[in-house]
Amino acid sequence: MIQSPQAIQVLRDGITLDATVAWRQERESWAWVVEIGCTDFDLVEAQAHDAFEALCLAREQLEPRGWRIGVAGAQADVWPSGMAREQGGGLRAYRMSGDRVGDLVDVFEPVDPATVTTVAEQRAETERRYDEIRRSAQNR
Description:
The protein is α+β, with helices and mostly antiparallel strands. It has 3 helices and 8 strands.
């Protein structure tokens, strides 16, 4: 598993910049906090019940300004299961392919920010893929 903080890249208007992402679990509240920093925007912080959701909330603060965050957890084919969220804090998620759920990936693993999407597009793609997986299972 990768460690916090992590050097990543962010993308806006075709320009890629270096950034950092950090995550931690608060001791008092057990909430997860994600921080994304770059020289071109103020530090963005979000808090949620798991790290993946906190990442989504941080992304939703940056996306209206055109920013895309280069982490695996922002790719359209990546989404955590309920168990990954409850037992693993949302630090790992499944990569879905075709009609099946694939391997686990680290949510904060650096990826090319040109390969990521918005949270809304990711949620829609996840629903589409889960529907496809359900249909495929019913036809077996």
